[in-house]
Design goal:
Layout (H helix, E strand, L loop, with lengths): L3 E4 L5 H11 L5 E5 H17 L3 E8 L3 H14 L3 E5 L4 H8 L6 E5 L9 H13 L4 E3 L5 H8 L4 E4 L17 H6 L4 E4 L1 H4 L4 H11 L4
Helix pairs in contact: 1-2, 3-4, 5-6
The structure holds cytidine-5'-monophosphate.
């Protein structure tokens, strides 16, 4: 499977559909977060799947265990490939999430990449998630190798905070796609560098090329 996940952080369904069509040669998984899900959740999920692609539902569940378990059940009915929960929800919540049978992959956010934090905090959250049966974490490229070392190579690390070139935005813990892939990222999540560019297909192509390095 290709390593880039494209974050479809756009307001309008037509724009999202166009992005899926334009970039499909380089991307196998599309991320639907709260911005697009609240506008046209089911329709865009259908379009992504009709194009033969997978959906990563990034709604970062963080609630009481019973509610999170129910949310995972509902996401499962949508047929998504993966979804997110917040590690900050704690052990009982994480265990409730994974208790759903035949569920999508569940990835736990360690600490948002827009926040400054410590390696200890991030690795502690990753270890907690692993101990609860979670499939992997969402964490910045700067933490990938340590998480892989502490949690094992089969524990997924999915990294946002990917910046091919220097950018001035809200992301704080960032690195290039090459650095993230070399560090062992299973997937990199890229949004604005592709969706806000003049030629999304070209940028997706060049980031895809940089993920093929050994
Ligand atoms: O536009 P950009 O490349 O920064 O997009 C990153 C995406 O990854 C956004 O959709 C954001 O919600 C998501 N994300 C993140 N940090 C996390 C978890 C998810 O940036 N820890």
């Amino acid at each position: 499977m290709k390593k880039i996940i494209l974050a479809l952080d756009v307001y309008d369904f037509q724009k999202a559909e166009k992005l899926v069509k334009e970039t499909s040669s380089y991307i196998d998984v599309y991320k639907v977060g709260s911005i697009l899900f609240l506008q046209s959740g089911k329709e865009i999920i259908k379009i992504i799947k009709d194009n033969g692609k997978d959906v990563f539902l990034d709604l970062k569940f963080h609630d009481i265990p019973a509610t999170v378990k129910g949310s995972v059940e509902s996401a499962k009915k949508l047929g998504v490939f993966s979804l997110t929960v917040h590690s900050i929800g704690g052990e009982e919540m994480l265990k409730a999430a994974v208790s759903v049978e035949n569920r999508p992959k569940i990835w736990a956010v360690t600490v948002l990449t827009s926040q400054i934090t410590t390696l200890e905090e991030v690795v502690g959250r990753a270890k907690l998630a692993k101990a609860c049966g979670i499939d992997g974490v969402i964490s910045s490229p700067l933490e990938i190798s340590l998480i892989k070392k502490e949690c094992g190579k089969d524990f997924n690390v999915v990294s946002p905070g990917i910046r091919p070139a220097k950018a001035n935005d809200d992301q704080k813990r960032v690195a290039t796609p090459e650095i993230a892939v070399k560090a062992g990222a299973d997937f990199i999540v890229v949004g604005r560098p592709i969706i806000e560019s003049e030629n999304p297909a070209e940028v997706a192509k060049s980031i895809y090329a940089s993920t093929l390095i050994k």
